[in-house]
Amino acid sequence: MINRLWLLFAQTATILLAAWFIVATLKPGWLSNTEINSTVESVTLKEDAYDSNAINPGSYYGAVKKSMPAVVNIFTSQTSKKPKARKGSSGNAGDPLFKFFFGEQAPDAEPISSLGSGVLVSPEGIILTNHHVISDADDIDVALADGRKLKAKIIGSDPETDIAVLKIDTKQLPPPITFGKIESVRVGDVVLAIGNPFGVGQTVTSGIISAMGRDHVGINTFENFIQTDAAINPGNSGGALIDTRGNLIGINTAIYSNNGGSMGIGFAIPINLAKQVMESIIGNGSVTRGWIGVEPQNLNKELLDSLGLPIGTTGVLLSGVLEGGPAAKGGVRPGDVITAVNSNPTKDVRQLLNQIAQIGPGDQANLKILRKNKEFEIKILAGRRPKPNLKN
Questions:
Q1: What pTM, to 2 d.p., does this model score?
Q2: Which listed CATH number (2.30.42.10, 3.40.50.1450, 3.40.50.2000, 1.10.260.40) goes with 290-384?
């Protein structure tokens, strides 16, 4: 009798243990005192009460909405198998320190396709961009913000400031961008960069004005850059740099970079210079600048000692004067030091270049000269600056 009871108990315990194992494995929630539900009957959330049409505090939405439709993508193609080496920002092909905001395929691709940006500046279809975006192009397509793609023609370009002017013909163009005043731009101002980086589509980045009047960068012949830390990358060349009102204050041109990407040092051509070049190209087909035919050299301590000039003397030494050129005809000699042009002090070669370029061909230039420690004033008639030699 006892054996039968023990056998029955053992069988019952085994069955219960097996049932517990199955339930614990497949339905563990049945064994818990706390009920586990896979659904929640109600949740209370706290949401801010605001107008969905209102702009968030500190947002630049208004500036972007105003200006972004005027920023276009530029696609160029070249059929040549061996393209010219593109000039780096220091004037040397392939300079690793400076990169134009410009994307292109490998040199062995055919046809070679490149990508840049541009800014629609007038209802007549005038577009501002960089010269290096379109310089070697056989075919130029412009994609508008609304998706339309149009053929563009080159009105003209100026390699020495890296500005180019294009034109598209179509109906119902988006509103052109509004030009800002460079006089209102200050270091520390918030700015926005709009372009097509890496071909991903229109992109907006923000930063501040880091510096104004950068003119010894070594990118262009005539420089007066806005420096910004707004993130800008390949494909942004020719795009817009705008203020927080949505007004155009610069044309993005190049970055300082060791790897081709943004490192927080970007350069834009100020809108006053871009506008001046654009108006000259539209009106005359090219940019006309003054020229006097000299080979200038910056002064240093060794040169001052050899010339017998006191330390601190500012000016530009003329190491050569072109025979028959405007300066030579006016009586300028090699070894002269130009200290001022039209009563404006001349501190270095870059400044002399800009001063002479602003004088119209045929107009008079008054040069203040140091010659053997004696000061003279020489009047010359400026000539026309020759077109730059773009051959590598």
A1: 0.73
A2: 2.30.42.10
